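Quick one:
INPUT:
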């Protein structure tokens, strides 16, 4: 049985922000949400988030999680923070303490802590520069005796390189007892969670230590500089994963994954691309430079040219998209569709082999197969109050600079003359146009500049 307490009450003064620190985003997701997601993977019986600053902002932002949100006010130290959670935890099993501003802790490290043995388990790390951290004090046999905070440490203790990450597992019943005995007689006048380690050692409760697989797992965030560094660290980890799975990245230092990106074989991604939410790229997909793709799937063999934006769309196989294309939510493109530069598609389905290659807006439309949509064509889907659909059937040819005023249907095989404004249904197989006839005015002269 496992309880998880996430400490998230710190003010985050050094972020210089109105937003609580733990709601600042790393890889597009609030810091505390990373911790909640990792915590959830351990299938705990109870998750308890201790929050403090920013009113109800933290519980509100994280309301989708089955967690108990407990306020800590005032904030009297890490031990005091965990105390706030205790009334909500049952005595059975263990309690794991995590931190809302230590976002990248990984399941594997926590799992290793769970396997370390009965008693207290501390996550520690050896740092060449341990400044600022609590030090792990051991006896000659190597048993952990206590944790001493830097501000309370002797010069000799400050030489210790093994530091406390803060993350620990304690038997819940014992934790409750130890916390009730905490005192704040230290240099900071705080109730230190770390003091439970000395109590455990004195009661001959075994104290185990585990080290994280990567140092970045235990990095905490106090300011925007640390946030930026950890963001780049994480993005390099993501890039490394993609490379290991055979994805070609033009530059692993110039990709941002803010969510989950899954790639087939022989995928190529050029520099500066951003992937948000859930993105699936099929085999042989190529993504051109500076494209932004969010919550979308791109099927095999599709080529996305630079500067394309794709949001909540489904793109078929062997399509050509961009450069400078914009696919907005609700776009579904079947196979071998071409969407060219400055073409915007929204809430529309376009069937196989159809093309809109230049400067168009296709909104709330159903487009058949083998349709050619000429440059500058616009579906006028909005009458100022309501949205209406445009239906373009198979094998239609729409001449350039056409306005299709919805609701309107262009029948199968129809041709629309360039420059037409189509307000009524166009019959199948016919040429429809709605423009005045071309004429030439004989003897007309251009105006001349007046002589001064
Ligand atoms: C703490 C540890 C220290 C460890 C370090 C790792 C203690 C006494 N010390 O020190 O051994 O090396 O973390 O970073 O635990 N928090 C609350 N409520 C409070 C106080 C803190 O929720 O009343 C939260 C903070 O938001 C933060 C975390 O607990 O996320 C750590 O608090 P902080 O004051 O930064 O502890 P450190 O002094 O860094
Ligand atoms: Ca502190």
């Amino acid at each position: 049985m496992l309880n998880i307490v996430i400490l998230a009450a710190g003010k985050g003064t050094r972020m210089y922000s109105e937003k609580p620190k733990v709601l600042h985003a790393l890889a597009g997701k609030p810091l505390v949400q990373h911790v909640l997601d990792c915590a959830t993977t351990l299938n705990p019986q109870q998750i308890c988030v201790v929050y403090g600053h920013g009113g109800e902002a933290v519980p509100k932002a994280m309301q989708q999680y089955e967690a108990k949100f407990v306020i800590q006010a005032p904030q009297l130290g890490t031990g005091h923070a965990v105390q706030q959670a205790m009334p909500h935890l049952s005595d059975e099993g263990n309690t794991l303490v995590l931190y809302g501003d230590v976002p990248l802790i990984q399941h594997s490290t926590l799992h290793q802590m769970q396997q370390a043995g009965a008693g207290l388990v501390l996550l520690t790390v050896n740092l060449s520069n341990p400044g600022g951290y609590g030090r792990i004090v051991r006896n000659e046999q190597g048993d952990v005796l206590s944790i001493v905070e830097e501000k309370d440490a002797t010069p000799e203790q400050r030489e210790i390189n093994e530091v406390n990450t803060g993350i620990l597992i304690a038997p819940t019943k014992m934790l409750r007892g130890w916390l009730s005995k905490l005192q704040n007689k230290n240099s900071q006048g705080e109730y230190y969670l770390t003091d439970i380690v000395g109590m455990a050692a004195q009661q001959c409760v075994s104290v185990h230590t585990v080290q994280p697989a990567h140092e970045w797992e235990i990095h905490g965030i106090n300011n925007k500089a640390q946030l930026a560094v950890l963001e780049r660290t994480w993005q390099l980890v993501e890039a490394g994963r993609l490379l290991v799975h055979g994805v070609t990245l033009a530059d692993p230092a110039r990709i941002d994954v803010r969510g989950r990106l899954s790639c087939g074989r022989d995928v190529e991604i050029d520099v500066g691309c951003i992937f948000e939410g859930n993105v699936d790229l099929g085999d042989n997909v190529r993504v051109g430079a500076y494209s932004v793709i969010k919550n979308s799937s791109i099927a095999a063999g599709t080529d996305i040219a630079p500067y394309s934006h794709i949001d909540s769309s489904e793109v078929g196989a062997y399509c050509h998209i961009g450069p400078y294309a914009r696919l907005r939510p609700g776009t579904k493109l079947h196979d071998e569709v071409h969407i060219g530069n400055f073409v915007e598609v929204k809430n529309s389905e376009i069937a196989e082999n159809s093309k809109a290659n230049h400067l168009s807006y296709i909104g709330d439309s159903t487009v058949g197969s083998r349709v050619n949509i000429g440059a500058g064509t616009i579906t006028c889907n909005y009458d100022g109050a309501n949205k209406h659909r445009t239906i373009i059937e198979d094998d239609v040819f729409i001449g350039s600079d056409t306005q299709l005023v919805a609701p309107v249907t262009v029948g199968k095989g129809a041709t629309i003359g360039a420059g037409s404004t189509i307000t009524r249904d166009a019959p199948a197989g016919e040429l429809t146009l709605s423009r005045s006839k071309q004429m030439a005015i004989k003897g007309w002269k251009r105006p001349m500049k007046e002589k001064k």
